[in-house]
Amino acid sequence: MKLGLIGFPVQHSKSPWIHQHFLDQLGLTGRYHLIEIEPDQFVAEINRLKTSDLTGFNITIPYKEKIIPFLDGMSPEAEAIGAVNTVVCQNQKWYGHNTDGLGLITALKVQFPDLFTGGKTVLLLGAGGASRGIYHALLQENFSEIMIANRTVERAQMLLKLNQTSIKGEAISFAEAEERLAEFDLVIQTTSVGMSPDSDSRVIDLDRLKKDTVVSDIVYQPFWTSLLKEAKAHGGRVHHGHEMLIYQAKLAFELWTQQSVDAKPLLERFNQD
Question: Which of 24, 159, 241, 258 is the least buried, fewest Cβ under 10 Å from its Cβ?
Answer without folding.
Answer: 258
